[in-house]
Amino acid sequence: MIKAVRGTRDLLPPDTALWNFAEATVRDIFRVYNFHEIRTPIFEETQLFSRSVGEETDIVSKQMFTWEDRGRGQSEKGQSLTLRPENTAGVVRAYIEHKLWDRGLNKLFYMGPQFRRERPQRGRYRQFYQIGAEVIGPSSAGSESPARDAEVIELLATFLDRVGIAGWTLELNSVGCAKDRPLFNEALRKALEPVVSKMCADCQRRAVTNPLRVFDCKVPEDQPIIAQLPRIGAFLDQGCREHFRQVEEILSAVRVPFTINDRLVRGLDYYTRTAFEFTHGALGAQNAILGGGRYDGLSEALGGPAAPGIGFAIGEDRLVMSLNRSAQQVMRPPDVYVAPLGEGMNPEAARLARELRRHEVIVEVGDETFRLPKSFDRADKTGARFILIVGEDEIKADAFTLKNLESGEQVSVPRQELAQKVQSRD
Ligand code: HAM
Fold first, then answer.
1. What is the mean pLDDT of residues 357-386?
2. Pocket flag, ligand 1, residue 117 (CB < 6 Å)
3. Strands of 336-340's sheet, edge to edge?
4. Residue 326, pLDDT score
5. Is residue 135 lining ligand 1, measured as CB closer than 6 Å?
6. Mean pLDDT value of segment 121-143
7. Interval 386-404 mean pLDDT
8. Phi/psi at 5 (5° precision)
9. Which pTM does this prediction carry?
10. Which phi and psi angles does 313 have, rounded to 5°?
11. Is 130's C-beta closer than 6 angstroms to any atom of ligand 1?
């Protein structure tokens, strides 16, 4: 038997109703915050990710699904391609490719699969889904303003509250800017020098190539050493401090609670200034529902013009796990089960179903080979509120037997009045 590949999974009904509920809710939220959808390809050139997410990150160094595409001979050279492990890089590439700075401030959102070769476990998959957003544009369009940081964070708090996720925690930090980073890296290198030989092989490498990434280490023995390292907060320049202060001020004004976590550096290299994560206790070890932050130098790193930006990505798999409701609660069962009774009744049943569906009535249709008890049984299983009998007598009278399966009431309803009767809920 061929099974789904390790770390991937099928999403089936009724669970998909929860996914649809989350997606419909977030689309409503994006609409009122004036975000618009962008769809970028699922695979990109490998160097897009190594140059943005960063060579030394776990994502690029260990987790990407990369292959050499042979091309098609003379006319098309081979190249290294990668299934996207995240979507910020693709959005910034599209920003540069389509000169989106002409539009001023871009407020973009996306939903879709991402791919990382991680060790599969609860809340961690190799194909997972993100709902994300990016606010990016020239500085003159206001893209660098702390008001944008606070707006996306407040949007997220509103969304989590709206879908009914209670008890989330927002952790906030500033990871500084291009000016602060060399000073911090230097301090980290110094602090690591006497202790790094006791750390894991990854940390020994990171200490040389990209010391900030030492904070991503999950090895338990290394944690006491990491706890003693200098924190980025002490190295922020005046501009970064002031930016962070204003983000905090706006969040307090809109009453979004947060805690400062000065160890939060996020596992991607492009972040500058504000970085944040929302966590939820119900998720266990993989407790980050979403993460995000500012990436003011990313466009330039990819060969584009200066384009400060901020964004986030919600892990939709984890979001759905934290929803405190069942698929049944968000699913609408059929309103009517149409039961054709006897040979030759299928066409009439189809006609009626079509008429009712035009009125937004949710209809399930049986088959003329089903005897009446079987039709009732099917209607019950689908959870329909009504069963509508389509037999010879009904067709002659152009009026149909409609039985309310909750109350047991049975009436004969003229064709023209059926939709109204079903929708009137009496
Ligand atoms: P990230 O923190 O790598 O950020 O991923 C965001 C979220 O995706 C995580 O908080 C988690 O909920 C979910 N996630 C990540 N990996 C997995 C996995 N293997 N299985 C299930 N869920 C997972 C980013 O991707 C950035 N692009 C976010 C961003 C947008 N920053 C600025 N703009």
1. 97
2. no
3. 363-365, 336-340, 386-390, 399-404, 410-414
4. 84
5. no
6. 97
7. 97
8. -65, 145
9. 0.94
10. -140, 130
11. yes
> What's the confidence (pLDDT) of residue 426?
60
CB of 216 shorter than 6 A to ligand 1? no
Question: Does residue 280's CB lie within 6 angstroms of at least one atom of ligand 1?
Answer: no
Instruction: Give burial (CB, 10 Å; 0-12/13-18/19+) of 84.
Output: buried
Q: Tokens representing 246?
A: 């204003």
What's the mean per-residue pLDDT of the chain? Answer: 95
In tens, the pLDDT along 187-227 reads: 999 999 999 999 999 999 999 999 999 998 989 999 999 99
Whether the CB-CB separation of 415 and 397 falls below 8 Å is answered with no
Cβ neighbors of 363 (< 8 A, separation 6 or more) are 334, 335, 336, 337, 338, 353, 356, 357
Gyration radius of the chain's alpha carbons: 28
User: Which residues have a Cβ under 8 Å from the Cβ of 368 and sit 6 or more positions away?
Assistant: 340, 341, 342, 343, 344, 345, 346, 349
Ligand 1 pocket: which of 115, 118, 128 to mutate (most atoms within 8 A of CB): 128
Q: Which residue has 């809340």 as its token pair?
A: 123
Whole-angstrom distance, CA of residue 306 vs CA of residue 349: 62
Q: Which tokens is 149 given?
A: 């940081």
Token digits for 346? 């299928």
> Please, which contacts does 225-231 make with residues 24 or more away whose CB atoms are closer than 8 Å?
225/195, 225/198, 225/199, 228/191, 228/195, 229/188, 229/191, 229/192, 230/184, 230/187, 230/188, 230/191, 231/262, 231/263
